[in-house]
Amino acid sequence: MTPGTAWLVLFFAGLCEIGWAVGLKYTEGFSRLGPSAATVVAMVASVVLLGWSLKVLPLGTAYAVWTGIGAVGTAILGIFLFGESREAARLASIALIVAGIVGLKLLTPDSH
Questions:
Q1: Whole-angstrom Cα distance, residue 41 to residue 22?
Q2: What sign for the dihedral angle of Cα 92, 97, 101, 103?
Q3: Contacts of range 97-102, beta carbons closer than 8 Å, 24 or more positions apart
Q4: Which residues contact 90 (CB under 8 A, 6 or more apart)?
Q5: Which of 76, 80, 82, 90 lies in the 20 to 30 Å Cα band around 20?
Q6: Neighbours of 81 (CB within 10 A)
């Protein structure tokens, strides 16, 4: 796997991370079968894709980016889907996470 492919795989792992985090809200404590099954599939896909990206990317960087993508995406969807706070300090904090993700990507060598 090339570094570029590893970053792409990590991005999709982050999207799956968002999917399962948001999915948890819809499972109603894993009492709804459809959302529960979809959430578990997203969980497994997220971890498997993260693992594949670790064949090339450094652990600390990949894990931080994976959780960062999940945190930012989940926070943004929380705003739009569940009416969570849009206050400026919260949005600025989300922007700081994005800056950290970009910084880690830019400062990571092509392989470990």
A1: 13
A2: positive
A3: 97/68, 97/71, 97/72, 98/68, 98/72, 100/64, 100/68, 101/64, 101/65, 101/68, 101/69, 101/72
A4: 75
A5: 90
A6: 12
Three-state SS at 85: coil
Q: Which residue type, as a one-letter code, is found at position 75?
A: A
Phi-psi region of 49 (alpha: psi -120 to 50; beta: other; left: phi over 0): alpha
Tokens describing residue 38:
């979809």
**pTM for the whole thing?**
0.88
Residue type, 15: L
